[in-house]
């Protein structure tokens, strides 16, 4: 389909690339998703927040947290504000790697950036601390969640 667009003289924009990248990641074709991202950059198409979120999610799902944070930094360097979804994906990736204390620090960074943690944020951390056997910490976070409304 992407090649067909070129044959018809249609130029892909950031939305077209993002939809295709997202589709590739959803089908587990992460390598192709990253290759398409590289082509996107070569063509001079600037990724948007959704593009970065798809890429970051792909890295987290592959256990490539350094790459995920590099993309997060690249996003910030481009002046793009992250949203709670992007933060939650990174927090989830850290928790899956049992880096829960790091994830908690990242939540504090998120708050400093003016983004309020969501129920998903709390649930991810609570699950992470339960996985470490830190039930007191998990209960403390649950109390914070209840008090935050």
TrEMBL record:
Keyword set includes Aminoacyl-tRNA synthetase: no
A Pfam short name: PPR_1
Domain of life: Eukaryota
Keywords, comma-separated and alphabetical: Repeat
PPR repeats: 13-47, 48-82, 83-117, 118-149
Cited InterPro entries: PPR-containing_protein (IPR050667), PPR_rpt (IPR002885), TPR-like_helical_dom_sf (IPR011990)
PANTHER family: MEMBRANE-ASSOCIATED SALT-INDUCIBLE PROTEIN-LIKE, OS03G0201400 PROTEIN
Family: Belongs to the PPR family. P subfamily.
Protein known as: Putative pentatricopeptide
Organism the protein comes from: Rosa chinensis
Source lineage: Eukaryota, Viridiplantae, Streptophyta, Embryophyta, Tracheophyta
């Amino acid at each position: 389909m992407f090649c067909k667009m070129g044959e018809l003289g249609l130029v892909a924009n950031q939305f077209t690339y993002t939809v295709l990248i997202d589709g590739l990641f959803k089908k587990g074709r992460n390598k192709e998703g990253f290759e398409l991202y590289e082509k996107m950059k070569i063509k001079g198409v600037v990724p948007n927040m959704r593009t970065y979120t798809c890429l970051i999610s792909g890295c987290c799902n592959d256990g490539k947290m350094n790459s995920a944070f590099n993309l997060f930094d690249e996003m910030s360097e481009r002046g793009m504000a992250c949203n709670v979804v992007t933060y939650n994906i990174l927090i989830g990736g850290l928790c899956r790697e049992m880096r829960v204390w790091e994830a908690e620090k990242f939540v504090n960074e998120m708050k400093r950036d003016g983004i309020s943690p969501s129920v998903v944020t709390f649930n991810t951390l609570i699950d992470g601390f339960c996985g470490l056997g830190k039930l007191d910490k998990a209960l403390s976070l649950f109390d914070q969640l209840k008090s935050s409304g």
